[in-house]
Amino acid sequence: MEQEKEILLEMIHSIQNSQDMRNISEGEREELNLTASRLMGRTLTVEVSVETIRNPQQQESLSHATRMIDEIVDKLLNDLEDSRSHLMTLYGACTSDIPSVPIDQKFQSVVIGCAIEDQKKIKRRLETLLRHIENSDKSITLLEHPKSTQQPCNNKQD
Question: Does the reported pTM lie above 0.90?
Answer without folding.
Answer: no
